[in-house]
Design a protein that fits this description.
Elements lengths: L2 H18 L5 H13 L3 E7 L4 E6 L12 E2 L5 H4 L6 E3 L14 E8 L5 E8 L5 H24 L5 H29 L5 H31 L8 E4 H10 L2 H6 L2 E7 L6 E4 L1 H18 L3 E11 L2 E8 L6 H4 L9 H7 L7 H11 L3 E7 L3 E9 L1 E2 L2 H7 L9 E5 L3 H13 L3 E5 L2 H10 L4 E4 L8 H8 L10 E5 L4 H6 L4 E4 L4 H15 L2 E5 L3 H13 L3 E5 L5 H5 L6 E4 L8 H9 L9 E5 L5 H4 L8 E4 L5 H12 L8 H6 L5 E5 L3 H13 L4 E5 L2 H10 L4 E5 L7 H9 L9 E6 L5 H8 L3 E5 L3 H12 L8
Parallel strand pairs: 8-10, 15-16, 15-17, 17-18, 18-19, 20-21, 20-22, 22-23, 23-24, 25-26, 25-27, 27-28, 28-29
Antiparallel strand pairs: 1-2, 1-6, 2-3, 4-5, 5-6, 7-9, 9-14, 10-11, 11-13, 12-13
């Protein structure tokens, strides 16, 4: 027998087993199976809803931003416009949904699973789909339909009709219950007798029990019909459990119960898990312990026997559960009699749902109990520790156009490498492999930057660069050329801002992108009562990719910007109520805006005498009649870029009562990033030198309160420079913070051994960097001699 055929049958059998067991991993496994067996690039499985798709599963090679149960729309999709039960494969270039970050050949396989269920498989392939491919995909689709019928038929313990009824009437039942609770609260404010108050309390308790039962029932249906979602989020362990325990303070006080918590101090501060379901599990287990304990103690212990697992042990000294009841404890209403004979009523579905949730999370729950002595719940669930890189990425802004990068690259391996690397540092890449695709996508979308090869299959890259500059959305988008050919001069003449010769230095690439992202993260205040003028200003700002804070009413400005960081203000002079002169004076009276650059933009004539009042409070003056949109854009760019200009050593010498910072860095974009971050946080006195020898010369001329030292530089590296600076008497205790690229294990120790006070890895995490600068300069406001 051929081993390849046996292997194929074995893999297919595994998929069938997943379908028969109603495994929640089935959709993902099916997609991976199709990719591996049929050499597709990526596969995504979508369920057809009314006017959208719901994501059921995806292959590991699919777009990383796709999440389980997320809704996806497409105005041009036949599956939504013309529903049909037939299996058919359609390639539509107008499709609005892509399975991968790379724009390649994609098609949609429409499958009617049943009368009420339809799905679409989005299939991505490197080469174009031939007629033979399309015929074969139809055959594959019919096989998949049978697998999906197996899975969908097995994945629920409740019948379709009952689950649909519960899901439908659930919201309808919540409304009258909430009304009962609302009117009960109103009654509570009336003058009632003690007996009436007791009746009211019983009414509210029963309404809450009914609402709890309904919520549990709806959640149980979701679990049984695989509609429950796995939403992973970060929890701070100690805070998470303390918040839950606080919920029980009133109950344990009334019942004279003592709760003892013991959270292992060796646990990480934060982990990732399904916090909503874990919260329900812990709350319900504690509720059961409280109900089983009339008086006594409940202990909660949290520890981690393994790195990727969290164990929670809840023990009580209550009445205990008989062994015959313990065997069926997870069945609905199994403990109702137990609770009624001890501490009152209960909903009866709590532990059933707890067990389903634990299984859903791939956890374990064991219960031991002795009548008269108490009960112990042992819960273990998988968790993920928060990595350093994830902490850095989580602090980055969410993906908008200021995080989106267009990559123009026809080499598949290079494009995948770039995609993975950009994802790692919080960027959202879109990859195209031709000039045609590039121009098409730039007509529709805006990007922080464009990375492009100049060797493309359908056009000369330099010609493409020129065409990009003619597109409105991309006129000011920085283009970074990455190529094996030495065409720097031509590329720069065509408008490129940076040129990398392959193989790419990814450290420098990320720093270039960080530089441009920091520029785009600028707020510009616009104030003009003339709406057409205000719209022109807004267009100039937004064309440059900055954020416009626009106001036509000058009386509202101060209230709206008090808690904002403003990088530049453009203000008209002639306005009603508060004119431009008075507004500028008021803005400048605030400490946070004392250094805010202001441009006066006015159509007023004979304004010279007016502006004498605010001489020194504004940077530039533009007249509306003689200033074009392009002039506005250029002026705004120049003003925003002032953050990139460090001080000269002579200027710094003359300054008193200010924090003086020396940046030792040879790479241009790193200089810009650090200088911009410092100036945006009111550290204005910065000197930049490019190697260790220049740093040594600079510190001998005057004293600096903080030194930021790159460790890899020409002439004299940072390690040697730090050691030599430490030999100078006045710099014995001066904070020196090492900046190192892509720090490896042991680099921190090397930096500290050389004499550095602290260490920050590159690419720089903006938040961590500024926190450390503030920490080391908070007591440095007096210049040392």
């Amino acid at each position: 027998m051929l081993s390849s055929k046996i292997d194929f049958i074995s893999k297919y059998n595994n998929i069938v087993q997943y379908a028969l067991s109603a495994a929640k991993e089935f959709p993902d496994n099916l997609c991976d199976y199709l990719v591996n067996e049929y050499e597709f690039e990526a596969v995504v499985l979508l369920k057809v809803k009314d006017k959208t798709f719901e994501l059921l599963g995806k292959s590991s090679s699919a777009k990383k931003s796709l999440t389980f149960s997320s809704e996806i729309g497409c105005k041009n999709c036949e599956a939504l416009a013309n529903p049909s039960g037939d299996t058919k494969f359609i390639v539509n270039s107008q499709c609005e949904f892509n399975a991968t970050d790379i724009v390649i050949n994609e098609g949609c396989l429409h499958i009617g699973v049943s009368e009420n269920e339809r799905v679409v498989l989005k299939i991505a392939k490197k080469s174009e789909f031939t007629n033979v491919d399309k015929d074969n995909i139809i055959i594959i689709g019919n096989t998949i339909r049978n697998l999906l019928r197996l899975w969908m038929g097995k994945k629920g313990g409740l019948s379709y009709s009952i689950s649909e009824i519960i899901t439908t009437i659930g919201p309808e039942l919540r409304t009258p219950i909430n009304s009962i609770l609302g009117f009960a609260s109103l009654l509570n404010e009336e003058s009632l007798t003690q007996t009436q108050l007791e009746y009211l309390s019983t009414l509210k308790e029963n309404a809450y029990d009914l609402l709890s039962l309904l919520n549990d029932l709806v959640d149980l249906v979701k679990i049984e019909t695989f509609k429950s979602t796995t939403e992973i989020s970060e929890i701070k362990i100690t805070q998470f459990f303390n918040d839950i325990l606080k919920m029980f303070e009133d109950k344990i006080y009334r019942n004279r119960i003592e709760i003892i918590s013991n959270i292992d101090k060796g646990l990480p501060e934060s982990v990732k898990c399904n916090s909503q379901k874990l919260h329900y599990i812990i709350t319900n287990l504690l509720t059961n312990s409280v109900r089983l304990t009339e008086r006594g103690k409940i202990s909660v212990a949290v520890f981690s026997p393994e790195k990727d697992r969290l164990t929670i042990r809840i023990s009580d000294t209550g009445v205990g559960i008989p062994s015959e009841k313990l065997k069926e404890i997870f069945n609905p209403f199994s403990l109702v009699d137990q609770y009624i004979t001890t501490v009152g009523n209960t909903t009866g579905l709590g532990l059933t749902l707890v067990k389903r949730y634990v299984d859903f999370l791939n956890g374990e729950l064991n219960i031991s109990s002795t009548v008269g002595k108490g009960t112990t719940f042992n819960l273990t669930i998988p968790v993920e520790e928060i990595s350093i890189i994830e902490k850095q990425i989580s602090s980055l802004p969410k993906a908008d156009f200021t995080n989106k990068v267009l990559v123009v690259e026809d080499d598949y391996a290079t494009s995948k490498l770039l995609s993975n690397y950009l994802h790692k540092w919080g960027y959202e890449p879109t990859i195209v492999n031709s000039a045609e695709q590039t121009l098409k996508i730039l007509q529709k979308e805006r990007f922080l930057a464009i990375l492009m090869d100049i060797v493309l299959p359908d056009a000369n890259g330099l010609d493409l660069l020129q065409k990009i500059r003619e597109i409105k959305n991309a006129k000011t988008t920085p283009v970074i050329v990455c190529s094996v050919e030495a065409e720097q001069q031509k590329a720069f003449l065509m408008g490129a801002v940076e040129y990398f010769v392959k193989p790419i230095n990814y450290k420098y690439l990320i720093e270039v992108l960080t530089n441009y992202r920091l520029r785009k993260d600028s707020n510009i205040l616009l104030v003009d009562d003339d709406i057409p003028s205000l719209n022109l200003l807004r267009e100039a700002v937004e064309r440059n990719g900055f954020k416009a804070i626009a106001h036509s009413d000058s009386t509202q400005v101060l209230d709206s910007i008090q808690n904002m960081h403003i990088d530049l203000a453009i203000i008209d002079l002639d306005m009603p109520e508060i004119d431009g002169i008075e507004l500028i004076e008021r803005i400048k009276s605030y400490e946070q805006f004392k250094n805010l650059p202001i441009i006066i933009y006015t159509g007023k004539e004979n304004f010279e005498d007016d502006i004498k009042r605010i001489d020194g409070l504004f940077e530039n003056l533009l007249q509306k009649r003689s200033t074009s949109l392009e002039d506005l854009q250029e002026t705004i760019n120049q003003m925003i870029n002032r953050y990139e200009e460090p001080s000269t050593q002579e200027e710094v010498k003359e300054k008193k009562d200010t924090v003086k910072i020396l940046l030792v860095e040879d790479y241009k974009h790193s200089q810009i990033i650090v200088t911009r971050l410092l100036k945006k946080n009111d550290f204005d006195t910065i000197v930049v030198v490019e190697n260790g020898q220049e740093a040594l010369d600079a510190v001998k001329q005057q004293y600096y309160d903080l030194i930021l030292m790159d460790m890899q530089m020409p002439v004299m590296n940072g390690f040697e420079a730090t050691k030599k600076i430490r030999e100078l008497k006045q710099y014995k205790d001066t904070p020196i913070v090492a900046l190192t690229a892509f720090a490896m294990k042991g680099d921190r120790e090397k930096c500290l051994d050389a004499g550095a006070t602290d260490y920050i890895p590159k690419p720089i995490d903006s938040q961590e960097f500024i926190q450390k600068v503030k920490y080391y300069t908070e007591n440095k406001l007096v210049v040392k001699s």
